[in-house]
Amino acid sequence: MSTTISGRIVTPEKIFNGIITFDHGKIISLEETIQTNTKYSFPASGQYILPGLIEVHGHMREPGHTQKGDIPHETQAALAGGVTTILDMPNTNPPTVTIDLLKEKMEKIYPGKSYTDYSFFLGVSKDSLDQLKTVDSHNIVGVKMFMAGHETTPTTIPDDQTLGKIFKILAKRDIIAAVHAEDQFLINQHNEELKDRSDAAAWSEMRPKDVIVSAVKRAIRLAEQYGTELYLLHLSTPEEFALVDKAKKRGVKVHGELVGYQLVFNTTDYERLGNKIKVAPALRSPEDQEKMWERLKNEKIDVLCSEHTPHEWETKNQPDVRIAQAGTPSIQENLPALLTTYINRFGKDSVEDFLQTLSKVSAKNPAEIIELKQTGEIAIGKDADFSIIDLNQTWHVKKEDLFSKCGWSAYEGMELVGRPIATFLRGQLVYKDGTIVGDAHGQQIKK
Predict the structure, then answer these.
(1) What is the CATH number of the domain that holds 22?
(2) Three-state DSSP class for 277?
(3) Residue 152's pLDDT is what?
């Protein structure tokens, strides 16, 4: 039996009053009308129906790091943040660098426990390159590699010789190379120069622009040399994106990702939040942040996500920046934090323009880049994945509202608008007004 939902529908092209009809989890019709006598109706001013968001960069922490997070908690947090699909990252314990470890996630760890749909990045280490030659490419969305490391990345590959071998294999197999681009050699140099510093603000000085610009140049050069499709994770500066722009003009198939916390927090926030906002790559200056906002407004960002990275409080609540672990949980808070920051910066009059941009960079673009053909937009034939937001509701972020197992947030105490009031996964209402509805029925999406 078909089901209907009505309200202000957001697509990258326009926002309109309409009705979506879906059956067996798929959208079967889309009408532009003001009629509201539907099973689910969101007619109030400030309410919008967005496509379900895609978290391209999810550190779900299983196996081996379940003290930080686990599949049930983190995927519930995702639904509460309007996210319906998660791409799982491989820096678990042990790192997911073999086909057997990938199968463990596919067959044992995720089924029956994930509240969102999901797919996987395979990792790679220096001694696992042979796995890239035989892995079923339909079971993964790409291969993740770290050019530099931090506390939870034991598979760092800093040298171009090994990276080149990986890029060559991936090019032959038409698999995306997803790269954490920081230059380990420059990081080591800056760490030595700042060896007497332990404050949180020192982190952005230990990993300044030269660290990331150098690595991005190297990654693009390798992609160009071998013809590999390149997905650059969590870029943070205009210089990196300028390199991406130039490479695209040369015909390199390269995509640049931005994460939400770079738009909400900057280096001036270390004094207030300390190591809660220690992330890698590090936060940037207010001037760089302003340029990132302008780039996003002009749709010169390929993908925007949260890079959800939960850590147990004990590993973050450290006075020494060298001991505190890098990363911050944000999948639940990301959408309302971005909307609130946008409104505070640019006003509410143009917020619908921003909603259209979000539907593109946080749903349609990642689906197209990763080739998730069943989701990513509100269109006939796509999965009925929706996030309903209300810009007139205020959320005072409190620990008791958070679903992530780690139980803390850098956003705690902030007043946010645009918190999702409902989330639908393949046509089923799975989250409403702060509560998860029903059991876990997420499915693996294969290419």
Answers:
(1) 2.30.40.10
(2) helix
(3) 58
Do residues 356 and 387 both lie within one domain?
Answer: no
Q: Are strands 83-88 and 26-32 parallel, antiparallel or unpaired?
A: unpaired
What's the pLDDT score for residue 296?
98
Q: What is the pTM of this model?
A: 0.97
In terms of Cα–Cα distance, which of 180, 171, 241, 209 is closest to 57? 180
Name 396's bridge partners. 415
Pick the last residue of a domain from 370, 404, 420.
370
Q: What is the pLDDT of residues 418-435, one digit of tens each?
A: 999 999 999 999 999 999
Residues near 380 by beta carbon (within 8 Å), at least 6 away in sequence: 27, 28, 29, 30
Is the same domain home to 90 and 147?
A: yes
For 316-340, write each residue's pLDDT tens digit: 999 999 999 999 999 999 999 999 9
Report how many domains make up the chain.
Answer: 2
Task: Find the domain containing 277 and state its range.
Answer: 59-370
Q: For residues 114, 120, 125 and 130, what is the CA-based torsion angle, rounded to 10 degrees? A: 130
Return the sign of the alpha-carbon dihedral for residues 231, 229, 371, 5.
positive
CB environment 324-360: b (16+ within 10 A), e (fewer): bbbbbbbbbbbbbbbbbbbbeeeeeeebeebbbbbbb
The verdict on 424 and 330 lying in the same domain is no
Does residue 38 share a domain with residue 65?
no
In terms of domains, do 322 and 190 share one? yes
Cα 63 from chain centroid (whole Å): 20
